Input
Amino acid sequence: MMLKALCLGLLCVIFVSHFYTPMPDNIEESWKIMALDAIAKTCTFTAMCFENMGIMRYEEFISMIFRLDYTQPLSDEYITVTDTTFVDIPVRLYLPKRKSETRRRAVIYFHGGGFCFGSSKQRAFDFLNRWTANTLDAVVVGVDYRLAPQHHFPAQFEDGLAAVKFFLLEKILTKYGVDPTRICISGDSSGGNLATAVTQQVQNDAEIKHKIKMQVLLYPGLQITDSYLPSHRENEHGIVLTRDVAIKLVSLYFTKDEALPRAMRRNQHMPLESRHLFKFVNWSVLLPEKYRKDYVYTEPILGGLSYSLPGLTDSRALPLLANDSQLQNLPLTYILTCQHDVLRDDGLMYVTRLRNVGVQVVHDHIEDGIHGALSYMTSPFYLRLGLRIRDMYVSWLDKNL
Output
């Protein structure tokens, strides 16, 4: 009996030491977020154990869990939902059923998932896009780009760009009754990265006739050039998304080689010829003082990786690296950042850079926000935070699109 009690106590200690993250005082529904965080970290721990034992790779195990949450394209009394393709790229399309005397607004949405996981078919994203289509009486397109590590950069960007260019064709806009002057590109997390990169490309491509009216970026990840920002330090063992997991996922976007995440953890992964890019991500200049706090800026060490990955210096992969001339043509932009998020500073720096070149930016910062909150909008894992961000996002679209 004593042995059983000792084993149980030991298991509890191991569980707490590995999976317990103290909750900030301002977190709403802290008990629920603590449980969700423990589930996420347990899945990560299990996936890493399986990978180390040679059973399956980390991303294969997590992908299995994600696929359990996929939904069928079920239409309802307000919205017709179909799975189709835009130039061989899978998309989920939401078309309002009620008649409209004028052409409708449209939203193209890129889902998050660290470039490795997820789909527009996920319950939360299906719920969000359906809600957007119904509330705005808008056409909504959820893009299912190819995923890493089966497909490395630039596959995801190329899929996103191809889907958007196809949708912007005159015959397609006419087919779906879309007003070409009222189109938005949106995305969260890694989907925010793709939304940013695709918008930069579309707005600067003279051959694309129809442009984007606005972009919406929800807690986006926009760079890994500097992997030791203040938000990386504050949220190293953060809620749901830790620094190590973020580094692992973005590494898989480029390569399966374990040398890259090892160099990223030391902030020594950028090539020698990349020094000129650091002005675009210098947080000591671009971050508001409130977020710089007392942290000391140290430029990353160059050349720690024995080979060069072109994607690390490519603004299509890391859109915060775009130069000012690329940013000047961007449309009205809404950026939402979360305080307790390892990616927080990417969005904050992009706000500064866009405003510096005259782009109109609306920025909302959620003081009690966590990364991935929009993934928790449906039973049994819904958070009031996720629903609040949904309402902020859709309300802003309704007023401005």
Notes: Residues 30-52 form the longest helix (23 residues).
